[in-house]
Write a structure and sequence with these properties.
The protein is α/β, with parallel strands linked by helices and 341 residues long. Helices cover 37% and strands 21% of the residues.
């Protein structure tokens, strides 16, 4: 049979097979493709019938690829990758200099977005797209160039650039203290206030809990006047700014709000967290000048932000479990041509 008359499987069948082969699970493949599990199963059956070979075998612990299935999966993934690269190239030429960066909702809304104007003034020709998501996205599949990951401080991920560590500190709006007239000088005083806390069952973070902070400061359990839970950190900060209670602020995400007085840290005690923020490149983004320029700006912005005072008049101190820190004067304005120390 000639090449012109031979019937090949459709692209939909191959995409369904690739997802099923990567997950080794029809249900997860269906969720990714936004179709039903039975539809994926039918696609695989049709593909196996067309090719005349079995691609999967069912085992006690789930699916496994046959040798023919492994060979086809490798070929299909390579072909799809080439198609994606070609599409990326066409999109890049159409859109000009474009950089897509992803990070958590809290980091993007509280730290990154307020600083984007500075980068735009320095590099107006570069279009920046923010893909905020608390999920860890596949950079290649989502066509993302850079990501800022919130990860354990050790071990350092391969190829990652450390931006800054994280500390937590109780914060509130100045108006809250003025309205209640209650003192807030020691952990026990929190009993007079509503506590704002992170309540995200999909992404539990016990190190960001009030229990962690109280234990780090040698305080026992307390019974607050109220409690409000949120599944995104930026929601907690909005509630704190509105005077709805006391929140556990995450430095560096709230540095700007402490500096301008929108939030204050009346207890003045911080607790270290064994997490840090790292900048990472997608494989296909290496070598693109616009990506390098944005990455360099981001690194410099993080360094200058870490050097600047947290809150000059707050008398902040670390918890007993942490060493004291000396804050320096604000760094000079960030420039893209600043040399690394």
């Amino acid at each position: 049979m000639s090449e012109s008359t031979r019937t090949h499987p459709s692209l939909d069948l191959l995409k369904g097979f690739e997802a099923a082969g990567r997950h080794l699970n029809f249900t997860r493949a269906a969720g990714e493709l936004f179709i039903t599990q039975s539809a994926v199963s039918r696609q695989i059956q049709v593909l196996e019938d067309n090719l005349g070979v079995r691609l999967f075998v069912r085992q006690r612990r789930g699916l496994a690829l046959t040798p023919e299935g492994e060979h086809l999966l490798h070929a299909v993934q390579g072909a799809l990758r080439q198609v994606e690269q070609a599409l990326d190239g066409l999109s890049a030429r159409q859109a000009g200099q474009r950089v897509t960066v992803t990070s958590t909702m809290g980091f993007c809304s509280l730290w990154l977005i307020p600083r984007l104007g500075e980068f735009h003034r320095a590099c107006p020709e570069v279009h920046v797209r923010i893909a905020a998501d608390d999920r860890i996205l596949d950079l290649e599949r989502e066509r993302i160039d850079l990501c800022v990951r919130y990860l354990p401080a050790q071990p350092v991920p391969r190829g990652a650039v450390h931006l800054f560590d994280e500390e937590i500190i109780p914060v509130c709006a100045p108006a809250l203290l003025a309205r209640t007239g209650r003192p807030l000088r020691r952990p026990q005083d929190l009993t007079h206030y509503a506590l704002l806390h992170l309540d995200d069952r999909d992404n539990p973070a016990p190190w960001l809990s009030w229990a962690h902070w109280l234990a780090a400061n040698g305080a026992g359990e307390i019974k607050p006047a109220g409690s409000l839970g949120f599944n995104y950190f930026d929601q907690i900060i909005r509630a704190a700014l509105a005077g709805q209670g006391v929140a556990l602020g995450r430095v560096p995400l709230i540095r700007d709000l402490l500096r301008d007085g929108s939030l204050i840290a009346p207890l003045g005690t911080r607790a270290l967290v064994d997490r840090a923020y790292f900048l990472m490149h997608a494989g296909l983004a290496h070598g693109r000048p616009e990506v390098s320029r944005f990455a360099q700006w981001l690194i410099e912005a993080a360094r200058c932000d870490a050097d600047a005072p947290l809150a000059p008049a707050a008398g902040l101190r670390r918890s007993r479990a942490s060493q004291s820190a000396t804050m320096t004067h604000p760094a000079a304005k960030i420039r893209l041509n600043r040399r690394k120390p």
